[in-house]
Every structure is written in C-alpha cells, then in structure tokens.
Amino acid sequence: MLIVLSMVLSACGGGSGSSKGSGKSNSKSGNGNTKLEIFSWWTAGGEANALKAFLKNFKKNNPNITVQNAAVAGGVGSNAKSVLATRMQANNPPSTFQVHGGAELFQWVKAGKMQPLDSLYKKNGWYKKFPQKVIDMNSMNGHVYGVPMDIHRGNVLWYNKAIFKKYNLTPPKTFQQFFSDAKTLKAKGVTPLALGDKNGIWGTMIFENILLAKLGPQKYSQLWKGKLPFDSPGVKASAQTFKKMLGYVNQDHSSLAWQDATQRVIDGKAAMNIMGDWAEGYFLSKGWKPNKQFGWTETPGTTNDFNIVNDSFGLPKGVKNPGAVKKFLTAVGSVKGEDIFNPIKGSIAPRLDAKQSKYNVYSQSALKDFKADSSNHTLALSLSNGSAAPQGFETKVDNAITAFETQKNVNQLIQQMKSASSLLKK
Ligand code: GAL
Q: For a substitution probing ligand 1, which of 256, 278, 384 has the most ligand atoms within 8 Å of its CB?
C-alpha cells in the first residue's frame, strides 16, 4: 500500500490538468471498431461473474465497441490501484476505471485527471434517480465525476447456519453475544471468525466497524474529518475490543485473501466472517443461498447503521474515445445495467427505481436498511474502502492495524493513528 501511496501522491503532484492520453489502450481496435478498456479489481467469485454479465449485455447492445475486461486481481484494489496510479501518472489512463466514491475519486479530480459528467447526468435524469448522498460521494466543487454502479454494505457479519444450529448459537447483535458465541466455537475446535487480510485491509474494516458501534455514526464520521481525537475513550475501547476479537481469528489470516476467509465459512472450518456484501456474491457463486446455508446480521452494535461502500466509474481526461466511454457510463447508470450487475455481486443498485424483485432476500433487506438509514443520516463512509479519508491516511492506518494484529499494543495503535491524523486536514 505504501507503493500505491507514493504513486498517487506523485500523480497528484504532477497533475497538470491537461493530460494527453497516449491512447495506447483505448483507441480503435485492429478491426476498425472502437476499443474500451474497463479497469477494475473484480476477479473473485460473484464480483467477476457480475462484471462478466454486465459486459456481455453491453457488448450485445454495442456491437461496434470492443470491450476489454482489464481487471487486476487483489481485493480492495490492492494491486489494481498501483497499476492505475502508474498509468494515470503517465497520462495513459484506461478508458474508465472502478473507483470508490469519496476520497478515492476526489484524489483524481484534485490532480486534474477527470472530466466532469454533469451533462451526462442531466441527459439521463440521474440527479433525480440516484440518492443525494451517493451523488455527493461522487461530486466535488459542484461537479459530478462518477457514475455509481453499486452500493455495498460494509458492516455485515456472515455465518454458517449449520454450525450455529449445531451449537445452538444466536447470531451476535452485541459484542457480549459475539464473545459468548466465539468462546463456545473455540472450545469446539471451530475458528469463530475467519479473516483473510494478506493485503492488510480487512483488519481495518473490522476495526472501523467496531468504531462505528462504539462511537455511533456521527462521532465515527468526525474521526475521519480530524474533528475527534484518536485518543478519545471510544477509540481506545474499540482497540481493546479488536484486540479481544483477534483472539478468535484464524492464525494464518495474513496469508489469506478475503475470499479464502469466506471460503472457510463455506467449508465449515470457520463459523463467521465480517466482510462487505461482496462476500454474499461469493457465497452465491458457490451455490450457497441466503437463509439456507448462510445467515447474516449487522456487525455487533451496528444494527441501525449502514457502512456504505460505493463503486463508481468515471471519465479520465485524455481518453481517445470519450463518446464510447460515455455509452459505457450510460449503461452503468441504467436500471437494466444495475439490475444485471448488482444481484450477482451481492450489492444493491444505487438507482432508486431499481427492480426490487430482481434481488434476493438478503439484498432486499440491505435495500430497506439503506433507504431507512440514508434518511436517518446514519450512513457511515468506509475508511478501508477508500471513501472516508485520503489514501495517505488510510495506508498509515492499514499499516498500524497490521502491526497491531501481531503486537496487540493499544497505545501504540492510538499513537500511530494520532500521528497520521495530520494527513486528514489535507
Ligand atoms: C471493495 C469493492 C468491492 C469489492 C471488494 C473486494 O473495495 O468496493 O466492490 O470488489 O473490494 O474486492
């Protein structure tokens, strides 16, 4: 992640705002057709299937456009983001790329690398079709730069129903319940909580969910804006709880990817997994069904909150064929496109007029909670998934969390986050 950071920073520093794409990747293809290079990190289970289904439909409707699926493996963009930063710096952007709404998108806007999409929004009536909160996550200085393709929920605890039944356990809505379940499971020789954080991110995601529970959504948001000190009692208490939780995760977590951890739940080796609902897409891709093989609940203490993760696509400056990219973005923001993609991915459609009947029982519950929580102002931007704070800060927190997982030193974690917090003002 350090590599990503330095590349992003230098990309920002060198951002002249007048990038001229080399067009290497997004010019005409050999047969005279227009070529589009779609860049993402969707390569695992449901996310890969969802992208494939979406691209298939797009190709059917746009036979003159050749689409290249340029996905780079590595959850949360651990590899893709460095590749992207190098290309952006060299003014050789992909035709369009997956990006989280919020800070992650804004870094490219600030660097002068993105084109505004205001007229595309107007043309498609999107200002009325997407929730305001999601438009805000994709807007900067009064202009909109991203078309939201999905909304994921980040605060979900998934569990293996057969294991919970076997040991007569209750899905944990509180930390007390979580630790009581975890103790029983550990005694029975089952890993209570599966974790796979070889790219150093998913521990941060668990920690941010604990923070959300202990601080509540308002204070949680203040934290990432530099308005709540990191040595506040609630942050310390969260670190203590995280430390306790780490006593119940698989020891080999730092050598597993997120989907390996989800697979442990399927294999019955672990009982629970805290992960965004792309894990639901993974379960579905393995033939597991909601409320049959797997159950879910919000992560302990966050029943009334929605940790939002949003993937969007935008229009980089310097692409050779902006017209074709706009066609792609139009498909991304269409009801049809979103309803093909999201039910497979485990996410919900950002569009308010998506067809609910296309979504399964889990996704319908996420949709209901999203609607309620967005009107209650309890939406919480994800730090680990790029929205809440600049990449430089997030990288420092990820590194501090990785160290914490072995050293379990609460004071050190607090100090490291405190010293990183100067980056929040930037
Ligand atoms: C998240 C992203 C999701 C999913 C996940 C795992 O950051 O928003 O769409 O791809 O990473 O790769």
A: 278
| Angle CA 193–363–334, to nearest 5 | 130
Can you list the pairs that 348-354 forms with residues at least 24 positions away whose Cβ atoms lie under 8 Å?
Answer: 348/150, 348/151, 348/153, 349/150, 349/151, 350/130, 350/131, 350/134, 350/148, 350/149, 350/150, 350/151, 350/310, 351/129, 351/130, 352/129, 352/130, 352/131, 353/129
Q: Are 64 and 31 in contact (CB under 8 A)?
A: no
pLDDT above 80 (res 75)? no
Torsion on CA atoms 138, 150, 395, 260, rounded to nearest 10 = 180
Dmax (CA) of the chain: 64
pLDDT band at 378 (very low <50, low <70, confident <90, very high): confident
Query: Which pair of tokens denotes residue 49?
Result: 């299937």
Residues 186 and 290: their CA atoms lie apart, in Å, by 25
Distance 342 CA to ligand 1 centre (A): 13
> Could you tell me the domains of the chain?
2-147+314-348 (3.40.190.10), 156-305+390-425 (3.40.190.10)
User: Could you identify the atom of ligand 1 that is nearest to the CA of residue 385?
Assistant: 7
pLDDT digits (tens, 9 = 90+) for 218-276: 999 999 999 999 999 999 999 999 999 999 999 999 999 999 999 999 999 999 999 99
